What does this fold into?
Amino acid sequence: MSANETPASHQPPAATRDSAFLRACRREPVPHTPVWFMRQAGRSLPEYRKVREGIGMLDSCMRPDLVTEITLQPVRRHGVDAAIYFSDIVVPLKAIGVDLDIKPGVGPVVEQPVRSRADLARLRDLTPEDVPYVTEAIGRLTSELGPTPLIGFAGAPFTLASYLVEGGPSRTYENAKAMMYGDPELWADLLDRLAGITAAFLKVQIEAGASAVQLFDSWAGALAPADYRRSVLPASAKVFEAVAGYGVPRIHFGVGTGELLGLMGEAGADVVGVDWRVPLDEAARRVGPGKALQGNLDPTVLFAPREAVEAKTREVLDSAAGLEGHVFNLGHGVMPATDPDALTRLVEYVHTRTAR
Amino acid sequence: MSANETPASHQPPAATRDSAFLRACRREPVPHTPVWFMRQAGRSLPEYRKVREGIGMLDSCMRPDLVTEITLQPVRRHGVDAAIYFSDIVVPLKAIGVDLDIKPGVGPVVEQPVRSRADLARLRDLTPEDVPYVTEAIGRLTSELGPTPLIGFAGAPFTLASYLVEGGPSRTYENAKAMMYGDPELWADLLDRLAGITAAFLKVQIEAGASAVQLFDSWAGALAPADYRRSVLPASAKVFEAVAGYGVPRIHFGVGTGELLGLMGEAGADVVGVDWRVPLDEAARRVGPGKALQGNLDPTVLFAPREAVEAKTREVLDSAAGLEGHVFNLGHGVMPATDPDALTRLVEYVHTRTAR
It folds into this structure.
């Protein structure tokens, strides 16, 4: 099978294909604007904190029972239009043997940062056998979810590289950028290798039953457009190209990427995610025709009273009025202190307000 | 004297007025593109770390001898075209009695965050008598600096409010935004009060001899344009209007403000600072005619080899070719681990490459 043939066996059932979420991704008419939230499965939910009690983040990502439960929680509670597979962007790196951990209150920490060509050898290819829990959890999920689509996800090569090179979270990415500017060949080889791993990880999810995928380039917004185009886009494009044949919608998101929206679409996305800084009509102008948009309520709005949330939501919906396809989301992940009831009300509000 | 009359006594001497920096700010022809660096006075310099040894940040800001020495250090070492007054954006708040401190490795921490109308009473007006060390240090500086201009500075109302409402540094500004969305009147009153304090602080600096001012709205980039226009711009405009009569160039900068550049110009800036994410020619399109631009080399580029620094510097200069006025700077502050020699070489490179 060539990469560009559609493997019919991986098509989702008709009811899923016809869901508001997948229709919006394909820019088809929808009964209402579909809604899901980045980090909808996570710390804002008491039922999540309960099942995670005493279990490390990476351990929880490798337990199909927990992944299934956590992924389903926001679907049950909020009635969102899509589930997103519960995982972390460093899971595929852990799966191929990179010595890393997710430290509470810190984030992913890599024992030995990648700084030289010799370090690349530690990044071997990923096979489905490396992540059996993914296949198992997605099998369970698709049967439990019924027609609700499941979004698979992975971190993009730049964002993974930023953790690997810095050795942990960073606000400046000074080591990663020093490599990008100072040793462009090593940098390109690192990103190309990460693209292969990311593509393989997304393929596992699609073949197990995910009916859309989102590539998170969380920190790409730290890059100037010329640097993104030259040093990052080729690797992200390789990921999207590798999964093009499955025909599932491919979403691409990063925070603070106002200047990169056009390039992130060019990389091969069907849906471009937008943070709250760029109004959706302006984002559509930058992305150009032929792509849906996802976004973009400021997640901090949810700390304001209900009337303020509704007013800001109307602003988002108004700016989305002319879009070819719109998936409502926050402009970044749900913040841990968010009141879950505010999220439930928001789903209802968008559904009611956009019912056709 | 009305606010819009030019008090001739505060005009800098002719040699200063004719400096490359002030000429570029006024969009007049220059012998070379002037260069200075945000945070040029600070942790990247060993001579700075030496004089600061054992002295807290706020204490050092209140000692005219130290302020003078620290402000001069980068001028001596790098030959930059302007000095920037060494201070911290919370100094005027401390001066009016707000109980705050700058904790090493953390940032400004406010003992009792501002959350209610009653809390506003703690923010009284600032008078020159509250900051005698500023007047004294600037007096010393202008005589030591000779024709090199001194830039005064202050934090903008939004950024000050973010510290006051959050109680410290934040990545999300959830409390500040909750007030902005949920209690717009209290928010507007808070920002208006901060605008008065900021304007008074800038006036002290100008009257003591600063020949330009920069308003740092460091965190404004967290706001969507509609929110900035409605809830922040009026206060920043009040600050700029209050110092308009002095005729000194007014610079306005925040990081991640690509979507706000036009509005930050509209607020009353003569020079709009641009971070590295937006190429300067695109920034000029957003800001419109009649304003100079400042920026915008990615500060992390300085961790790369010399050839890479020069190549990226040429990209900045090329994108600035059509500007009415250009002040070369980094797109954010100098990072602490930066090699000072790389900064000195960068000043020389820009001067040589742009010599007319």
Remarks:
- The interface with chain B takes residues 172-175, 177-178, 181-182, 221, 223-227, 256, 258-259, 276-279, 282, 298-301, 303-305, 308, 312, 315, 335, 337 of chain A (CB under 8 Å).
